């Protein structure tokens, strides 16, 4: 994600700098998109723990980490936690995390987003946008039995493949 250039502005006698939209980029933190993503995910983890009325000890047991680690996570000390691990924490707390990769509509470079609403937080790995992540709490409704009687599975479906088929696939 290309961060917008910081501009100095004035309000009367007060001079201030307008944010780029990512406080980590504004502060010169390395990999600001990843830092913002981790902060957004940590807030979602905090919200779920609060909504479920879990103590830090109960949350730690659910996430298979120590209570002091939960305390660090909830207070924003995220250096010990990877994005993948934090996404797994959301799963362990009963949240579905959907990852969808789509062509960028804004520029040649794509971006990575975390969201449970239309307003997305942009993230990236190693400073380069890589995907669009969307965290949602509701699982899509499934309709069971829709294809009942329409699909036939051969009795030898899970049997060994014929030798001629194996030979033809090995020659390619």
Describe the main β-sheet briefly.
2 strands, antiparallel
CATH superfamily of the domain at 26-136: lambda repressor-like DNA-binding domains
Beta-strand portion reads: 5-15%
- The CATH class label of the domain at 26-136 is Mainly Alpha
Structural class: alpha+beta
> H/E series, N to C?
EEHHHHHEEEEH
Q: What is the third-level CATH name, the topology of the domain at 26-136? A: 434 Repressor (Amino-terminal Domain)
Determine the fraction of residues in helical runs and give it as a percent range: 25-40%
Mean pLDDT, all residues: 78
Describe the global form: extended
* Rg, nearest Å: 23 Å
Please mark out the parts with pLDDT under 50 across 5 or more consecutive residues, or reply none: 117-122
The separation of the N and C termini measures: 41 Å
Give me the side-by-side strand order of the main sheet.
1-2
Count of strand segments = 6
Using the 3D structure, state the CATH architecture of the domain at 26-136: Orthogonal Bundle
The helix tally amounts to: 6
